[in-house]
Amino acid sequence: MKLIALPAFSDNYIWLLQNDRHALVVDPGDSAPVLAWLREHPSVQLDLILVTHHHADHVGGLAELVAQTGASVCGPALEKMPVDGLGLQEGDPLEWHGLHFKVLDVPGHTLGHIAFWAQPEGQDPLLFCGDTLFSGGCGRLFEGTPAQMLDSLDRLSALPGNTRVCCAHEYTLSNLKFAVAVDPTNMPLRHYAQACAELRQQQQPTLPVALSTELAINPFLRSRHPQVTAAVRQRNTPDQAEALDDVSIFAALRSWKNEF
Ligand code: ZN
Ligand code: FE
To answer: How many angstroms separate the alpha carbon of residue 206 from the centre of ligand 2?
Structure first.
């Protein structure tokens, strides 16, 4: 099974998974890059489209792709899609040519946001997580609460460490600038930032990234780590500092990033 990142707009990736003569795509905000790939691979048929959430940069290509290919669409049960499709939520079964997906509810960026995890035979698992988890960062809280996002990230963190995390945006370098400011003594983070900078210089994607790497470097997955907690406390006034619980620390970290 082949995993391909199709760049779209200025910093989106439309993930394409090819299984022999079949392909699926995730979050096609634009139909053009997908249709161009399909033209270059005339023996491959697009037969499934997965959608993580309702934002335009993730669903904008749906109508055109369905019209051109007849692919079926699976998206979040709790959000409105621009085309007819199957609404999914946590625990719903989803199978694609022998590959079984686990659907996870990951509210925070949007309220109905879902993620898809699967383990292709003989390969590391895959996670399509839309705008929930980014390399070195996480999605903005447009609809959900910090408590919901922290819980969603905790649940993604519990997936196998060798999971290949397929985020919907190439935000890595700017996320890592913030991560280094929060967690300056984290050496794996420093090394990872250097490696990502080199990849971007060569116009290569920094994704997918192993979940185990994210657990070591991403401040939003490490908000309970003493180093990260201390940095957040230091930024808040002393009288608030002691009262901060896990969710407040996470919320303060997220607002810090918004202002960074
Ligand atoms: Zn979004
Ligand atoms: Fe997005």
So the answer is: 17
Ligand 1 (ion): residues with CB under 5 Å are: 55, 131
CATH code at position 162: 3.60.15.10
Q: How close is the Cα of 81 to the center of ligand 1, in Å?
A: 13
Q: What angle do CA 43, 45, 50 make, to 5 degrees?
A: 150
What pTM value is reported for the model? 0.97
Rounded CA-CA distance 59/14 in Å is 11
Tokens of 153: 């990230």
Structural domain count of the chain = 1
Q: What is the dihedral of CA 28, 102, 170, 36, to 10 degrees?
A: -30
In a domain, 78, yes or no: yes
For residue range 49-87, list pLDDT tens digits in order. Answer: 999 999 999 999 999 999 999 999 999 999 999 999 999
What's the CA-to-centroid distance between 169 and ligand 1, angstroms?
A: 9
- Owning domain of residue 109: 2-173+207-215
* CA 8 to ligand 2 center in whole angstroms: 11
Active site residues: 53, 55, 57-58, 109, 131, 169
Q: With 70 as the cut, is the pLDDT of residue 238 above it?
A: no
Please say if the pLDDT value at position 242 is more than 90: no
Q: Is residue 162 part of a domain?
A: yes
Q: Please give the C-alpha separations between residue 209 and each of 97, 213, 258, in angstroms, as whole numbers.
A: 25, 7, 23
